[in-house]
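Journal club prep — side note

Before the paper discussion, L.F. wants everyone to see what a predicted structure for a comparable chain looks like in token form. Sequence:
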Amino acid sequence: MTFYVHHQPVDYLVIIKTLIFFPIFDAPKFIAPLISVGWSLSYEIYFYVIIGLALLLKKNIIEKLLVLLVFLSVLGIFWNPDSVLLKFLTSPMLLEFSLGMFCGVLYQRFIKAETNNNKKQLLAIALALLGASLMCVTIFIDVDFDIHMQNSIENNNILAFYRVLIWGIPSAIFLLWVIFLEKSFRMNVSFILTLAGDASYSAYLIHGMVYPVVASFSKKLHVGPILYLVIAVPICIGVSIIFYKIIEKPLVTGIDKLLKYKRPVIMK
């Protein structure tokens, strides 16, 4: 897709950097992977490394991990170092992982709380309204940079912090609504939604390649932007499910068998 659609050269070093999902700091700025959305995976790997080190502590892991992530983020905000490596290590993007952990802690307390279920349902609805409202408000926030562009986020910790405020907090509230709703209303999730959820990682990786193809056809057919979204989203989900079934799942289950995991990554 990079070579034939975007007409960009494909360098073998870029391919290696993409495959290891970790930034190589051999330039004055963060090196983006071949699959552009993979830039955030570098932060995920960093987060997993921190978790691995935190597991050695054995006690109060979550609390210590949260303190460390917040400390690194605050350090990055006030310091905002010039070094690409130090900028990455102290990126406020770590706060988004903190928000996810905080949601997990609140969820555990929510399901254990001996509160009237009606109150739990009201809380879920309130979070839904608050999260959805804040997410809609972000559409009208006018900033002088693109918060979805990795170059802005990777190379400026202040802009990364703005992204956490504008997108991270509303998304965390919305996430709490979803998981609280499922428990308080005892909802059974449909098979197709579960399958779409299973394929979410595949969707994350390939949506940037699916949308331009759909956009190209939409342009030729003179399809407006609203109809384009209505068409593009289900197509992307459908392609992602196919990708998950024929590539991701066989790969993961194959590695499970190769490494003889007692508990497979993908549960049947």
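L.F.'s comment for the group: The mean pLDDT is 85. Keep this in mind when we get to the figures.
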